[in-house]
Design a protein that fits this description.
Chain lengths: 542, 290
């Protein structure tokens, strides 16, 4: 890495108003754009979820027609995955990675700008399909043919929107890799990097490897519909199951793309509030890498009931169960970090602890689903819905919320209201369980997913889930208000913000200067390998 | 700028990414409308393409200007290298999806339709009498697209393989000439590479013409036609892009850009060209020969 001294090339004369945001090459501006985009999409996707839950409040058809219901489940998934969790993590990566590795910005700032500014256009295209002839896509976010080929005018728009989002993700990921490999401050060796940086590096590799595969798969859908190809048409020698293989070859690494950065966030927060160094740092790194590797060889556990040779079923079952090992290592390490720590329970810590417990529940139901013969029973029931909402909502979303509480004082220079933060936490945690826990029961009892109507005996649990969903949804308005209030004012945050916080980002002022680390910090030498304590840093301000 | 080696470089803001988004958005919306039967979609596409060209000119122009004025230090250079490497890796994965489809069809779906392994019932109930023979019946039991002949590997494809491999050699020659500061050889080598690329594309076009007009082989010829044309088509698209990139680099060389130490633009184009080359070898083996 270059020995950086002074800086003469910074462009400090950025335009103001809207042009500042459109033309920006600053990682903090772009991170902010990503996070706000994600926040807005969170309410749009959440609104769709409430439409689903409203219809499911009672058996029978009450509010929406089945086609629209199905397009709501499809769009809810696409918005939440591609519009909320992925942009939120990319936003966090933009804000935090340069600060954590002592760089002044991302490696490829203009491309960074483009990877953000694709998203509003891609989602304008995606959401506009709801108003087209034949409605939005309604075959589920997995886009299985031949069903998805029956989509109306929306079809090509959906395909191209996915291409567009893929471009954004790939460019964002390439930027993260280039930044981490090339922009680290002198002395910041790979095994000194905070885990958030590590998890993102590995996530970025997953993104670069699988987003193009998704692009290829949806391109085949497009040509099958419009250009007479037969990839997924048995009469022409193809096979609809081929699409499922391609899709899940993307889709399974994708679910780790949605969770690995959360692991990094939690690994940052737990040591701070336990006031102890992270237990088992290097095992965390290896566990993350193992999970990423395994994610490429487990995809067909999403397709156990599709009709695969027995050897395939067995292989994918066993490979899937292996993932429990590195994931177990992580949970073990987080718990050991807290063991005998001097713990305090500020809002980020509360969300982090809830993450560990509730994500683990989601992991356990995942193990149940991994068992092929059992999956024949669970497949396409609400049990699956319960499983992946447990890993995504109190998993990914809680980690994002925890990250926002943890770093918001750093970003804005103000402390948030601990009272409202805790209120938000308790309401979210209670309602998220009220929403999703009953889904395990209706699923095991046989209620299928993606159905707007259901048998009478499922009513009680569905009504509980709907009440929980509205509670969870409205609790997020507290979060929105709190974030806005914190940006606008509040108690001044110190540089370090949290007593136990370690890492380069806390050596900067709160908020950090527009260009941080214009002189790279020196992190050489002062590294305690026994405690894996963070480096003492020559305090630098620009 | 005095000590470019030791400074962080952050490019100033740019409106080109946003313009690029408008361009791609217009292309996609226009194409979608066209596919849905609205002929005015082509006008939106044309607009998108125009904006895209303006964006490419503007964005790359700015980058070239900054590069030529010596703004880019070692660190920027390394960032560009990582960026290009992982971009090419993502391209490889894009092709992997199509190769994967080809392998899946060859190993599973066609044999199963023909009654092998777990597809036995499918064959006897749905497609009785269907025999899975590659490439003879590779348009499936429904004989989608009618009778066709497969593309032989030892005609044009073999010539094209030789052309593309030769172009790799001429490009490497040009690179060595650049490093040795032999500008004449550089320009000749690069011009030859672009020329070979153009010949490749022309022959590929002729091959498609033959396929459509004499072999009965079209994009609609069942899964053989699908994999054949999608794989060679996307490859051809990449050759076209690669040749355009090399052409731009050629013009830059003629204008005296690059020097023996700093020529990442050239190297990136060369990496891309070699990647296209290697993909072709995969195609030649798995699409044409096997």
């Amino acid at each position: 890495m270059s020995t950086t001294t002074a800086d003469e090339h910074h462009d400090d004369h950025h335009p103001s108003g809207i042009m500042r945001w459109i033309t920006t090459t600053n990682h903090k501006d772009i991170g902010t754009l990503y996070l706000w985009f994600s926040f807005i999409m969170f309410f749009i996707g959440g609104f769709m979820a409430l439409i689903i839950r409203t219809e499911l409040f009672e058996p029978g058809m009450q509010f929406v027609d089945p086609q629209f219901f199905n397009s709501m489940t499809t769009m809810h998934a696409i918005v939440m995955i591609f519009g909320v969790v992925m942009p939120a993590f990319t936003g966090l990566a933009n804000w935090l990675i340069p600060l954590m590795i002592g760089a002044t910005d991302m490696a490829l700032p203009r491309m960074n700008n483009w990877s953000f500014w694709i998203l509003p256009f891609a989602f304008a295209m995606m959401l506009s399909t709801l108003f087209m002839d034949g409605g939005g896509p309604a075959g589920g976010w997995t886009l299985y043919p031949p069903l998805v080929l029956q989509t109306g005018d929306a079809f090509p728009f959906v395909i191209f929107a996915i291409h567009f989002m893929g471009m954004s993700s790939i460019m964002g990921a390439i930027n993260v890799v280039a930044t981490i490999l090339n922009m680290r401050a002198p002395g910041m060796t790979l095994m000194k990097m905070p885990l958030f940086v590590w998890t993102w590096l590995i996530t970025a590799y997953l993104l670069i490897a699988v987003m193009p595969v998704l692009a290829g798969g949806v391109t085949m859908l497009l040509t099958d519909k419009f250009f007479e190809t037969s990839f997924f048409n048995a009469a022409g020698g193809g096979d609809p199951v081929l699409f499922q293989h391609i899709f899940w070859f993307f889709g399974h690494p994708e679910v780790y793309i949605l969770i690995l950065p959360s692991f990094g966030v939690i690994s940052s927060i737990i040591p701070t509030f336990a006031r102890k160094p992270l237990f088992g740092y290097s095992s965390m790194v290896y566990a993350t890498a193992s999970i990423a590797f395994l994610s490429f060889i487990v995809w067909a556990h999403h397709m156990f009931t599709v009709g695969m040779p027995l050897a395939g079923e067995l292989f994918f079952m066993l490979a899937t169960m292996l993932i429990a090992v590195p994931t177990g290592v992580k949970v073990f390490n987080w718990v050991c970090t807290m063991w005998r720590g001097a713990m305090t329970f500020e809002t980020p810590m509360l969300f982090a602890i809830a993450f560990i417990i509730l994500f683990t529940i989601g992991g356990f139901s995942g193990l149940m689903l991994a068992i092929t013969p059992a999956d024949f029973q669970y497949h396409d029931t609400y049990f699956v819905v319960a499983h992946f909402h447990y890993v995504l909502v109190p998993g990914s979303i809680f980690a994002i919320i925890a990250a926002v509480y943890y770093w918001l004082p750093k970003w804005t220079g103000h402390m948030y209201s601990e009272f409202w933060g805790k209120t938000h936490f308790w309401l979210s945690t209670i309602f998220v369980n009220i929403t999703f826990f009953p889904m395990h029961f209706v699923g095991l009892a046989g209620m299928p997913r993606r159905i707007p109507d259901y048998a009478l005996q499922f009513s009680d649990y569905n009504q509980i889930a709907t009440i929980g969903a509205f509670g969870f949804g409205f609790a997020q308005i507290i979060f929105l208000g709190l974030v806005i209030a914190t940006i606008r004012g509040g108690v001044k945050a110190t540089d370090r913000v949290w007593e136990g916080a370690e890492g380069l980002e806390w050596t900067l002022s709160s908020p950090p200067p527009y260009h941080s680390f214009t002189t790279p910090p020196n992190v050489k030498g002062e590294w305690n390998w026994f405690t894996h304590q963070h480096y003492e840093t020559v305090k630098t301000r620009s | 700028m005095a000590n470019a080696e030791s400074n962080y470089y952050i490019p100033h803001g740019s409106h080109w990414p946003f313009v690029g988004s408008i361009a791609v958005f217009s292309l996609m919306v226009g194409f979608s409308n066209y596919l849905n039967g609205a002929s005015w979609g082509t006008y939106i596409m044309a607009f998108g393409l125009l904006v895209l060209l303006v964006m490419l000119f503007g964005w790359f122009g700015a980058v070239i200007k900054e590069s030529e004025s010596g703004n880019y230090n070692k660190q920027v250079d390394v960032s560009f290298r990582w960026g290009m490497v992982w971009f090419i890796f993502s391209e490889i994965m894009f092709f992997a999806a199509f190769f994967g489809a080809l392998f899946y069809v060859r190993v599973y779906s066609l044999p199963w339709l023909g009654g092998e392994a777990s597809g036995a019932a499918t064959n006897s109930y749905l497609w009785p009498g269907f025999e899975a023979l590659w490439p003879l019946t590779a348009n499936g039991p429904g004989e989608i697209g009618g009778e066709f002949k497969a593309m032989a590997w030892n005609g044009l494809p073999l010539v094209n393989t030789i052309i593309l491999l030769t172009s790799g050699v001429t490009l490497t020659w040009a690179h060595h000439a650049l490093k040795a500061n032999h500008r004449g050889q550089l320009i000749i080598g690069l011009a030859l590479t672009v020329l070979l690329g153009a010949i490749f594309m022309a022959l590929q076009g002729f091959e498609y013409y033959e396929a459509y007009n004499h072999l009965g082989l079209t994009l609609g010829s069942g899964v053989y036609g699908s994999t054949f044309f999608m794989l060679t088509g996307f490859h051809g698209m990449h050759v076209t892009i690669g040749a355009i990139i090399l052409f731009v680099i050629l013009i830059r060389c003629i204008r005296g850009h690059f020097n023996p130490e700093h020529h990442f633009g050239f190297e990136a184009a060369a990496w891309y060209w070699h990647f296209v080359d290697v993909v072709w070898l995969g195609l030649f083996i798995f699409v044409y020969i096997m």
